[in-house]
User: Fold this.
Amino acid sequence: MASFPQVRLRRLRHNQALRSLVKETQVNSKDFIYPLFVVPGSRVKEEIPSMPGIFHNSVDLLPREVEEIARLGIQAVLLFGIPDSKDEFGSSAYRADGVVQKAIRSIKQAVPELLVATDVCLCEYTTHGHCGVVVDGEIDNDRTLELLAKIAVSHAEAGADIVAPSDMMDGRVKAIRHALDEAEFSFIPILSYTAKYASSFYGPFREATGCTPQFGNRLSYQMDPSNWREALREVEQDIAEGADIVMVKPALPYLDVIRSIRNTFNHPLAAYNVSGEFAMVKAAAARGWLDERQAVLEVLTAIKRAGADIIITYHAKDAASWLDNTPFLH
Ligand code: PBG
Assistant:
């Protein structure tokens, strides 16, 4: 094998064009899904304190927002709803005139080509803030399935292109697939939050959506951060149940899990660069401790390099504008 001085790895790092030529990982604005938080009311655009640059939007302001998103070259959004009323069973999650259902219609009317994915979960809609039905202080898996299926169908009826269950109940992909097929939505794909960890990095999101559990925690349904083999079992199950796209969440602390899944399975793989990961970069950049643009592009490249095809990220708009403007000479 050749070695130094015949081999000089620095040769291909000599200038920007050479580096571009041998670049192994390209991040593209087409890789992104941009999360949007929708609230009741009108003319509401309120910044989420722990997520600078990310807003609560009322439905009437969505058309302008999604036109900007599409102009930036981002082709998909992921909707989260903050309802005006909560109850024990999260029934406002599947109302035809619920906040997410209205948002879907408004977006599809404004920019029909934009893909609308929806978060399918109960926690923003339940008084107790858990992702499933609570029976005697426990999260009841099987009773939750029917509700999740109802939510998914109501999103499809409103015009959603993709449904994304984030609850981590066993069997939800199967239940949702069955319900969608029964309702003649066999063409609607399921993006499953397959390996969703019980993570501290959801803090800003929970504040933004008011979905902090009112008792206990999510350890009985979300995964233990220690486990990667179990993630492969989750993927096996979700694929067997009919998931079209699988997901790892959060992204940065779980790059090894992304890589293991990529090496083992052939399904499209998404990674969710979650609120706490976003907040860390934003907070450090605001103090001048990091160069935000470089840090964000490095984070997104790392997630893609680990094996993700799709990145759900709050940085999407910024990153899309930076990527498109990257000059050839610099
Ligand atoms: C709800 C849900 C959560 C996130 C997405 N869907 C929070 C949680 O499970 O507690 C987190 C997203 C983020 O932090 O950006 N099931």
Notes: The domain at 25-325 is CATH 3.20.20.70 (TIM Barrel). The longest strand covers residues 32-39.
